[in-house]
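Case study B.
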Amino acid sequence: MATPSVEDYIKAIYKVQLEADSVSAQDIASRLIVSAAAVSKMLKRLQELRLVDHTPYQSITLTPSGQKMAMEIVRHHRLLELYLVEALGYSWDEVHIEAERLEHHISEEFEQKIDTLMGHPTRCPHGDPIPDKDGNIASVTRTTLATEPPGRLVVSRVSDADAALLRFLKSEGVFPGTDIELIEQEPFGGAFVVRLEDRIVRIAPDAARQIFVEPAGVSG
Ligand SMILES: [Zn+2]
Ligand SMILES: [Zn+2]
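Model:
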């Protein structure tokens, strides 16, 4: 991407927070593919704007206004993804990149019109929760296919950033809401063997780590 903006940094901090218990400057640098110097410069600016709290050697956190900004961008992103799939006929592996660009540019009115047109959706095509207008968002778990014991599971969401993974999942019929049964992991860190209706699908460990699941029978 071009030089990441304030909004890109705020979203990156939010995303890292979801995946890890604490957020370091290094985490942000690797996520945005920028130098440590660029991150520390931007962190100063974000603190001046009162979007971020950062005491040296402690986790970087969003202030309430930073969190509000993150929710606004995430809402744009996920509503746009849904709109691109449902209204414009994009496939689900194409929309993340488009939404990354568009999310910074749409007006509140445009956002509201998509929201209404889509019937006030709560999930993007990848299963990620869409924050409401007030910035409330459903919580997500970090449980993946790679961390669960064998048993019946429901796919809750999948990583939206890996287009090849999304094409693979689509070809196998695996979407948020799909019921699967994890049978076993093949020996020596091999594929996760999954039953999907009456078919057996083998999912590589790197892919399994990007498929978030919940035990079957639990909704949320
Ligand atoms: Zn996305
Ligand atoms: Zn998405």
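The first helix runs from residue 6 to 19. The remaining cases will be described in the next quarterly update.
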